[in-house]
Amino acid sequence: MGEQTGKSTRVHDVYARVRQDLLAAHYRPGQWLRLAPFQQEFQVSLSVVREAFSRLAAEGLLESVALRGFRVRELSGDDLQDLTDARIHIEVLVLRESLANGGTQWEADLLAAHHVLERTPIRAPSGRGVNREFIPVHAAFHHALLAGCRNGRLLMIARELRDNAELYRMWSPVVDQSGRDIAWEHRELTRLALERDVEACADLLARHIDHTRQALLGGRAGDGEVSAERS
């Protein structure tokens, strides 16, 4: 029993660390990840690394290729279209549940998450690219927005879809969103959620998600290609 618990802990440690590195764009899209270097780095067995990678593949962050191993998920315009459509359907559904069921603690958590978000710069200190500290803070805000939903399965799906979208945000070229006030969108989402204005909040969340797709594809719908060049 203790041995099994120890293995589960080691699997989680590898999973959590590699997941964090994936979302921080430490590995390139399509890059093959050999098991042996991770075995050496974490001082664990190959089976532990394989199990951790399988969990990441189940979440869509890695791809498992028969007889080849694991690689970082490839990015494409078509996949971004599908991903965005799925996010809008799922996150709007979860948002409606959240606004219907969230209580006083949910309201307090949402306000706290937004407070931290507003005080975390989006841009990196160099002025190029996204501030790495903004990524978990932004994710925490969107999680808090949806956390009133009582369906754990839906919340898990929503989180996985957002994480997949994070790969696109990190690996796509920096796009001009000068005409977009993202901070206002977050403030308005918070206000509408706390006022329980379901329809207005759902509409804004859908547009908030879709704005990112439009920006990354240069405002074009269809078969846009998403670059994997760092800015």
Automatic annotation (TrEMBL):
GO terms of molecular function: DNA binding; DNA-binding transcription factor activity
Protein's name according to its UniProt entry: GntR family transcriptional regulator
Species this protein is from: Actinomadura chibensis
SUPFAM superfamilies: GntR ligand-binding domain-like, Winged helix' DNA-binding domain
SMART domains with a match to the protein in the record: FCD, HTH_GNTR
InterPro entries in the cross-refs: GntR_C, TF_FadR/GntR_C, Tscrpt_reg_HTH_GntR, WH-like_DNA-bd_sf, WH_DNA-bd_sf
Keywords per UniProt: DNA-binding, Transcription, Transcription regulation
PROSITE patterns: HTH_GNTR (PS50949)
Positions of the HTH gntR-type domain: 8-75
